[in-house]
Design brief:
By secondary structure, this protein is of the alpha+beta class. It has two domains: 89 residues, Glutaredoxin (3-Layer(aba) Sandwich); 100 residues, Up-down Bundle (Glutathione S-transferase Yfyf (Class Pi), Chain A, domain 2), CATH 1.20.1050.10. Helices cover 51% and strands 9% of the residues. It is globular.
Length: 203
């Protein structure tokens, strides 16, 4: 397998999943502005959508979209804590969280990062994002991870996007459960290994 990534971007989520699953994969950094990979390939030929992550599978096919990629990785590992069995009620809860993070939190940050979005629209996007973060904070009030007592690929995704709070001047301490969650996930050896590999953590 090969993971196409950009340091600290949403591709950190499947990178974390790979380490948590104990699976090896080649890494290829992508310059998202130029759409060129570290080896000089045209990234738009690999993923016409133009963004990360993309996962080249063993059969040569390319899988895109983070929520799909992390489930593929978890299923390859057979680790039922990373992703419950397909068809089980818990698996649908995982997909529920992955969908919520993707559409309501991840995309909320995207609007704040986009210089083309008008300031008035950013104020509205920020207010929505704050509400979504408050909802997630409440969900973590009585359990350490989104699905309960065990870390799943949804937690890796949530941790990835929460790291962006400082870039848009949102104080994570506003939500004590999210702050504790972020510290808990950051302390996991697999998470630290992924961040070290991307050069976004100090040895």
């Amino acid at each position: 397998m090969k993971l196409y990534y950009s340091p600290g971007a949403c591709s950190l989520s499947p990178h974390i999943a790979l380490h948590e699953a104990g699976l090896s994969a080649d890494l290829e950094k992508v310059d998202l502005a130029k759409k060129i990979t570290a080896s000089g390939h045209d990234y738009s030929q690999i993923n016409p959508k133009g963004y990360v992550p993309a996962l080249e599978m063993d059969d040569g096919g390319v899988l895109t979209e983070g929520p799909a990629i992390v489930q593929y990785i978890a299923d390859r590992s057979g680790n039922r804590e990373l992703a419950p069995p397909a068809g089980s009620p818990a698996r649908y809860r995982l997909q529920e969280w992955l969908g919520f993070i993707a559409s309501e939190i991840h995309k909320g940050f995207g609007s704040l990062f986009d210089s083309k979005v008008p300031d008035e629209a950013k104020v509205s996007a920020r207010d929505r994002l704050i509400k979504r973060l408050a909802f997630t904070d409440a969900a973590l009030a009585k359990q350490p991870y989104l699905l309960g007592s065990h870390f799943s690929v949804a937690d890796g995704y949530l941790y990835t996007v929460l790291r962006w709070c400082e870039y848009v001047k949102l104080d994570l301490a506003t939500w004590p459960n999210l702050l504790a969650f972020s510290a808990r996930v950051a302390a996991r050896p697999a998470v630290r290994a992924a961040m070290l590999a991307e050069g976004i953590a100090k040895a």
